[in-house]
Amino acid sequence: MQLYRGGIEDIINIYNIVKEFLKADVYGYKRYGNSLVFDFIESSSELPIDVHVVQRPGFYRVSRGFGFIHSSHSPKNLLYPFKQELFRVDQELNIKTLENSLKPVILFGIKPCDVAAINVFDKLFGNNFNPYYLNRRRSVVGIVVEECLNPGETCFCSTMGTGPDARNGFDLAFAKVDRDLVIFKAGSSLGEKIVAKANLQKASDDDVKRYEILLEEAKRKTNLGIGVEDIQTSLEKSITDVELWRKVSEKCVGCANCNMVCPTCFCSEIVDDVVGDEAVRIMQLIGCLSYTYGLVAGGHFRKELYTRYRHFILHKFVFYPKQIDLFGCVGCGRCTVWCPVGIDIRETVKTVASRYRG
Amino acid sequence: MNQVVRALASEEKLLNFYNIVLFDEITERLEMPKKIDLLLIEGSTVTREQEEVVKKFREISDFVVAMGTCAVQGGVQALRIGDDIEKVKAYVYPNPEHIDVNKDVKPVDNVISVDMFIPGCPVNHEAIASLLKKFVSEGLPIAIPESVCSECKRKGIVCVMVAYGIPCLGPITISGCGAICPSFGRGCYGCFGLKDFDLDNSKLKMFAQQLKDLGMDNDRFEQTVKAYSWKTWSKYQNVYHR
């Protein structure tokens, strides 16, 4: 694949080009107060260019620097929002479905793991023709990815095969080697057009070498040292090991932060409300770690918290592959970072694997 | 109470459906009604007379709602539990001998059977409005018990504990407030009450340690959960860090 070179200013230039060229709204990570969120980016000054993030289990701090990874929110929050009004019913029982499509959207500066998460959603909801998802997904006219040459401490995308470099499902990718060298690559004909419009030069052999050294280092850092198949088979064997699952979830308080920040968690609850003379049906995300999950008329089929934590892990590594032939975990590490007590998914799978491997 | 007024005023037609028979702050004192369809009780019982009043109202009411943290959990008055009641009275009143009050504090369901609980200090007016609207259409709201954290995330709020190191009771507190405090960059102080599911002594102890590491000492933690979660907390406290 042909690589191109530019500087930090070219990222800003490309932001302006895609916005103008595709006549679209740009969504991505942006500064918000002292933190970062995923939202509508109004101007290039909001881009997290001079931002560094330190992330560890239960810890996230933003400072000035060069190593931005991601925030608690992800493209999920645009494509599959926390709360969606599904329809309204009036007193004559007429059903009104809400138009929920977006204006044309460009996802800008999202991460390879985010793209992998969108692929998961595409399969999950695409296969089932979920109109609420598909309407929003179809409005995405361009995807610009930032590769992670400086991955977070909790990231393990290399193990999951989802990063740290962009692999598929993107139009243009860039990687910050340093302030004066940013490597660009096109992933589609649209990407090629953007490269041409931005007047980028071809990268020299030296540029490519510097990029590849950092990329190899990033791959090494984001590798757990266990294969996903090993994780998968050992998890399958561990299902009835109550003692083990109680142990790995002993700090869990069932707050469901892991579910809320996971870019592929999609479980929802239907809530009915009354507004004026109309009944409104709303779908809202809930977490499988919440007590409500598994609470049904007549009883509760996952009353004990460890069974819900076990389900969360097994779903990502064992059940998603059975459903859609992809892992539900993209290795972004958000569940670990945003867990208020720092429960580490990497430790969980390592503990299970060390007991059941082979 | 302001939240009830706010709920009643939230939709023009709502007041047409209700005949308010007793509400000291907004109606004149009337005679004891013969029958009440929907009774909202605020506050915990702290005297024998109050217990009798609550029992009388239960007899004539079809549907009883314990409304607010005092009614549901006991409330800040539960802080006195475990201390000598005479000493507590003397702290507060110049003539404590005139005060006739029980040494314990009873959430409403310790005295009578309760059909629904709406926690919060104060309660969320949207929850009250939802109840009022659904009650007249002969349905009831379905509670979705989860932690405050989910509400933060749905509002797009960055976790104050993980991102700023602010001690926050959100992960162990029941949802329903709409994550008010974290919305303003403060930690949750648990006014909707501890979750009465998923927690046990060891989990609470570990969580309290986490808060301690962020600067909230154990006494402060204990005091806060005692004040806003007495009923649930009393299930745990015997074994907690003693």
Account of the 3D structure:
The complex is a heterodimer of chains A (358) and B (242). Chain A has helices spanning 8-21, 76-79, 112-127, 131-138, 157-160, 189-197, 205-221, 228-238, 242-248, 257-261, 305-324, 334-337, 345-356, and strands at 3-6, 25-32, 35-40, 51-56, 59-64, 83-89, 95-97, 105-110, 140-146, 172-178, 181-186, 201-202, 268-275, 278-285, 295-296, 299-300. Chain A is α+β, with helices and mostly antiparallel strands. In chain A, β9 (140-146), α5 and β10 (172-178) form a beta-alpha-beta unit. The longest helix of chain B has 19 residues, at 218-236. The mean pLDDT of chain B is 91. Chain B is globular, with a radius of gyration of 19 Å. Helices cover 40% and strands 7% of the residues of chain B. In chain B, α1 crosses α6 (125-136). Chain A binds chain B through residues 32-37, 39, 58-62, 71-73, 77, 82-83, 250-257, 260-261, 269, 271, 273-274, 276, 284-287, 290-292, 305, 337-341, and chain B through 11, 130, 133-134, 137, 142, 144-147, 149-150, 153-154, 156, 158-159, 161-164, 168, 170-172, 195, 197-199, 202-203, 206-207, 210. Chain A: InterPro entries: 4Fe4S_Fe-S-bd, 4Fe4S_Fe_S_CS.
Compact overview of the structure:
With 358 residues, chain A is α+β, with helices and mostly antiparallel strands.
- Write out the strand line-up for the largest beta sheet of chain A, numbering strands in chain order: 3-2-8-9-10-11-1-12
Total strands of chain A: 16
Strand order of the largest sheet of chain B: 1-2-3
- Portion of residues in beta strands of chain A equals 15-25%
Biggest interface: chains and residue counts? A-B, 46 and 34 residues
Major sheet size, sense and barrel closure of chain A: 8 strands, mixed
Low-confidence segments of chain A, ≥5 residues, pLDDT <50? Answer: none
Percentage of helical residues of chain B?
40-55%
What does the largest sheet of chain B look like? 3 strands, parallel
Radius of gyration of chain A from the CA trace?
21 Å
The best one-word shape of chain B is: globular
Structural category of chain B is mainly alpha
InterPro entries (chain A): 4Fe4S_Fe-S-bd (IPR017896), 4Fe4S_Fe_S_CS (IPR017900)
Organism (chain A): Ignisphaera cupida
Pfam families (chain A): Fer4_22
GO molecular function, one term (chain A): oxidoreductase activity
